Amino acid sequence: MILPRRSHSQCTDIPCDSVGVCRGLGAARRRGLRSRTAEGNDMIGTEEQDSLLPWLKDKALPLWASNGWDERTHSFVERLSLRGEPLLDAPRRAMVQARQIYSYSVAHRSGWFGDGAELVARAGTSMIERYYEADGAHGWAFSVGRDGAVLDSRRDLYTHAFILLGLAKAFEATRDSAYIALADATLSFLDRDMSSEHGGYVESLPAGDSPRRQNSHMHLFEALLSLFDATRNSVYLERAEAVRDIFFRRLVQAESSVVVEFFDADWGPLEGPHFPFEPGHHFEWIWLLEQNDELRHVDQTATVARLWETALRTGVGVDGRIFARATVGGAVDRSTRLWFYAEAAKAAHVMRSKYERFDGPITSDFFAAMRARFLEPATSGSWIDELDAHGAPKVNFAPASSLYHICCAIRAAEA
Q1: CB 402 within 8 A of CB 63
Q2: What pLDDT is attached to residue 2?
Q3: Which pTM was predicted?
């Protein structure tokens, strides 16, 4: 889909600076990412430079398949210490198992990791045994201990979305149709026990007073697209279209420029009128909305452009830092996380490859920023996950969950 070319005088929906540069998709933000590190080294180059693939193949994937794998339980560990040591006693979320299955399936199918299919098969079997109806109730438990005892029995929509994604990718790696049968059973559970009369699904069972979140439905959309890609069964595409329709009807607000994060039970947006948003989620939606040609009968050109512009204008600092939360008026949480840059790299790939009128930061800009801030200061093959507003690490471990973002971004860039 092509973003129509317009003259400067026609760019009334995108803020311009005093010299007539269309800043929404313009070079001002790119200059922000062309900052220097504390050592004074230029952080970016051309699109072809700064590939993270050698680091992923030679360091990250081997580390997380060894130190990040618990042979006793045939499951992935939740996190490593900053020295790269497995933290075996941390509760293990089902979501993390599914994300690691995704990562090693992608690595296997991309030729990045030779033992990927075997690892996926072992992890898939363990994930089913340890989480699916593990406490006798339908659905997937949220977390278990190393010994397999259920620690958190809630049925969480976000977790189930990633379970579906992991099952789709396990099928792609192994061609075992049992994974698709289990995905169908999981969807039936969601329909029967977690569907909402207002559309979509409730956040968790048992139901609490927590607000509804766009994030859970975004990842459900991702999972359904993956199930369709893996099987070519149009049922999954129809389900994905229903979630995409919720996005356009409910989730995007403020003249299609902000993805609202939280809602009441009937999809009334919360935190208005300023609607703090997460720039990282803008980048994720930009990527996901452009992943299936068969869903593009709805014109989403203007929405994608505005989400990109809003995220860059107030969600990215002049030094290239991507903020945790912002409003259309500016940043409200200046901490930053690794995954923001992976998702921004994917969105930049979409904007540059599919939109004609584009003059913004490119994929390698965000990879360079991610490398400098989160990868180079860490143990080889690992990462610093989160930095506070002053650039200091916020946690003393590396979460396994980040590998999913990294693998997806590198696959997009290498495609």
Answers
A1: no
A2: 29
A3: 0.89
